[in-house]
């Protein structure tokens, strides 16, 4: 099936008729073609968005909400089809796409469709000056949303939903590695009656189609999730044009385990936070620090449970770990195993590519545990973004706090302890945008989502996202 661009409610081939291969990671085969769009396609998407804006920005909140809830319902009604498409495009187990990715895409539309009806702005009575200030929060106009391949529809809708809820029109580009569910979403948007031009989806490479979006002088805000290097590039391009930017970038998140934690709960959750979605989640706790009093026990138990995680075809219901997203990505992740060995790391489990019977050309890899001697080695500092974790013992709270913070990233952190005072001390001092205590990836869509340091700028989620996608205008009236 060929994927097409979605512009002004219609489906289009790329103007230059240039196409890219789309691979199925589970067997390494090309199974569809996607537009290799150029700046001309982006310009057409921009023109459609611009002409839809006056009407959409004046559409009542009730009506915007109604359409968004309809999109949400249709995503739910297409759960199986979307989950299968996501799995085929990305390599993740179908059950995971069915349990997490697609329901979450649906709830993104439901959440922001509802949230916009509750979004209010401030007013300030200037007491003693006979004046009142009120703040309007007006949509920006045409905004750009660029998303990655790890949670394709989930992260795509996480950006689009608040953008259109707030009254903007969107030029969006999903990752060229996983474009399929964004394409299927465009059909759903038409079915739900989303007016033409409110959402436009251009497919293609980051360096061409993506670049045309970030360079466009009249696309005034960019919401981006992806690699830190790309984020830095976008910031450089956008700065002279004073674009609003929300950048959700990489992470190298600590998972800190104290000996007073609920051990079983920690062990099971640590499997998920290490290898969930093949370790391709920016929130994965890829640096595991364990208190020395339980280190040997943990090592034994962790290796034991990890050895039982089945790597297999995404359609098999007992598959825990599917295929990595692409061949170059698999090669990158595997290269870190060699780097680890060269640095003196010890591979406690895994480390190798796997051939799954019948799917020998798929991009499978063993879940991998590397014991490191020092937190300063590359495998402990750089984002690997695959099923690879490092483990290392620590003795004191101060020591682990220091090493947890000694990376350039600051997205999330996980802490396992039942000591309340320690929890308070640690959560206050961990350099991260999000900290989970005795859990991982428990999400409430109202909460701020984002990172510090090289993990990004800005926050998404709840009203933070609606604030990002609006401009505040203060009006002062003297009476
Ligand atoms: O991401 P890119 P890549 C990390 C992870 C991974 C690394 C590289 O470590 O190994 O980044 O992954 C678009 N202008 N994360 O190369 O390139 C691109 O087309 C505009 C963490 O796949 O950042 C895609 O739509 N857009 C992460 C999106 O950016 C550009 C998730 C992300 O791709 C562009 C993914 C440009 N010049 C990777 N260049 C997370 N934080 O969850 C690329 N793009």
Distance from N terminus to C terminus (CA atoms, Å) equals 64 Å
Strand content: 15-25%
Q: What order do the strands of the largest sheet run in, or round the barrel if closed? A: 14-17-18-13-12-20-21
- What is the alpha-carbon Rg in Å? 23 Å
- Structural category is alpha/beta
Helix content: 40-55%
Q: Spell out which ligands are present.
A: ligand TXE
Tell me about the largest β-sheet.
Answer: 7 strands, mixed
Mean pLDDT: 98
Uncertain runs are: none
Please tell me what the overall shape is.
globular
- What is the tally of helical segments? 15
Q: How many runs of DSSP E, i.e. beta strands?
A: 24
Describe this structure in words.
- This protein is of the alpha/beta class.
- 41% of the residues lie in helices and 24% in strands.
- It has helices spanning 39-57, 61-77, 79-90, 94-118, 152-165, 180-192, 206-215, 228-238, 263-275, 292-306, 327-342, 378-381, 397-405, 420-429, 462-468, and strands at 5-7, 10-12, 19-24, 29-35, 123-126, 131-139, 142-146, 169-173, 199-201, 221-225, 244-248, 254-257, 287-291, 346-349, 353-356, 359-365, 368-371, 388-394, 409-410, 412-416, 434-437, 452-453, 456-457, 470-478.
- The N and C termini lie far apart (64 Å).
- Residues 146-150, 173, 175-176, 205-207, 210-211, 214, 225-227, 230, 233-234, 248-250, 282, 383, 385 line the site of ligand TXE.
């Amino acid at each position: 099936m060929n994927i097409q661009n979605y512009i002004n409610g219609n489906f289009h081939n790329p103007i230059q008729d240039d196409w890219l291969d789309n691979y199925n990671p589970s067997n390494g085969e090309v199974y569809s073609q996607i537009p290799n769009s150029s700046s001309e396609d982006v310009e057409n998407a921009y023109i459609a968005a611009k002409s839809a804006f006056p009407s959409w920005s004046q559409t009542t909140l009730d009506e915007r909400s109604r359409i968004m809830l309809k999109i949400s319902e249709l995503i739910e009604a297409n759960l199986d089809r979307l989950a299968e498409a996501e799995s085929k495009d990305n390599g993740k187990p179908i059950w995971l796409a069915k349990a997490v990715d697609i329901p979450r895409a649906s709830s993104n539309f439901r959440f922001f469709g509802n949230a916009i009806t509750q979004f209010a702005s401030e007013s300030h009575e200037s007491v003693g000056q006979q004046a009142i200030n009120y703040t309007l929060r007006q949509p920006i106009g045409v905004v750009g949303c660029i998303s990655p391949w790890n949670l394709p529809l989930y992260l795509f809708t996480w950006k689009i939903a608040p953008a259109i809820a707030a009254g903007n029109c969107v030029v969006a580009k999903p990752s060229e590695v996983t474009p399929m569910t964004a394409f299927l979403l465009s059909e759903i948007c038409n079915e739900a009656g989303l007016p033409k031009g409110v959402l436009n989806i251009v497919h293609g490479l980051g360096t061409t189609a993506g670049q045309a979006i970030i360079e466009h002088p009249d696309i005034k805000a960019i919401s981006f999730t992806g690699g830190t290097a790309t984020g830095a590039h976008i910031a450089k391009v956008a700065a002279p044009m004073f674009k609003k930017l929300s950048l959700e970038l990489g992470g190298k998140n600590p998972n800190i385990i104290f000996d007073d934690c609920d051990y079983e709960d920690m062990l099971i959750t640590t499997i998920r936070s290490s290898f969930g979605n093949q370790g391709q989640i920016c929130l994965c706790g890829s640096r595991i620090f364990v208190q020395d009093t339980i280190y040997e026990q943990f090592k034994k138990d962790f290796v034991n449970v990890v050895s039982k995680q089945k790597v297999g075809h995404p359609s098999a219901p007992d598959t825990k770990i599917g295929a990595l997203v692409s061949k170059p990505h698999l090669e990158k992740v595997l290269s870190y195993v060699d780097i680890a060995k060269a640095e003196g790391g010890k591979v406690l489990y895994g480390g190798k590519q796997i051939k799954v019977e019948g799917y020998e050309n798929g991009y499978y890899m063993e879940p991998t545990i590397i014991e490191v001697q020092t937190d300063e080695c590359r495998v402990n500092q750089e984002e690997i973004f695959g099923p690879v974790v490092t483990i290392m013992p620590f003795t004191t709270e101060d020591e682990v706090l220091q090493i947890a913070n000694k990376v350039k990233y600051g997205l999330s952190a996980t802490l396992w302890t039942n000591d309340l005072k320690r929890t308070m001390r640690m959560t206050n001092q961990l350099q991260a945008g999000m900290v989970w205590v005795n859990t991982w990836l428990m999400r409430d869509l109202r909460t701020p989502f984002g990172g510090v340091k090289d993990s990004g700028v800005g926050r998404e989620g709840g009203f933070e996202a609606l604030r990002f996608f609006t401009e505040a205008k203060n009006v002062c009236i003297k009476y």
